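User: Write out your own:

AI:
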Amino acid sequence: MVSNRCKMAVKEELKKLGLHFIVVDLGEVEIMENISMEQWQELKANLLHSGLELMDDKKAMLIEKIKNIIIEMVHHSDEIIKVNFSDYLSEKMKHDYTYLSNLFSEVQGTTIEHFIISHKTERIKELIIYGEHNITEIAWKMGYSSVAHLSSQFKKVTGLSPSHFKQLKDKRRSPIEEIGNVKHLN
């Protein structure tokens, strides 16, 4: 669940089933009632019909939470994390980073770092297209130590420099849910 639209769809489906929610947040739902198997199956089917997936596998839920934290950080937050991301993620997830990293790599076929880089690259494309910031401002906003570092990483992923990307007439972008599903980024 990555957007407010997703949260609204989940709330709507819960209401249809007469279930009262305490929390509907990115990747997690807490309801007041005990849910019957029939309600569970109906909720699962209705959410799937809306393009959402109901997860009950602990590992899958951890992976989804990791993805949501990264997506929130990269695409929806102007706050720059001042601590090491591995520490930030461990604290947020209440798990050892090595465990989270190994689980993520095993299930996703890519590292957390590559997943973050993929999302940062897509966000950089978006900021370039909007044209509200120059590349120096984008580098600072995205937490890069320098324009050179941003440019180098951007070119590794896209094959283009940020300035070359800006000149393209057809600026290709990917939907958030498809970013990071690439198996390897050299």
The first strand starts at residue 21 and ends at 25. The chain has a mean pLDDT of 85. The chain has nine helices and two strands.
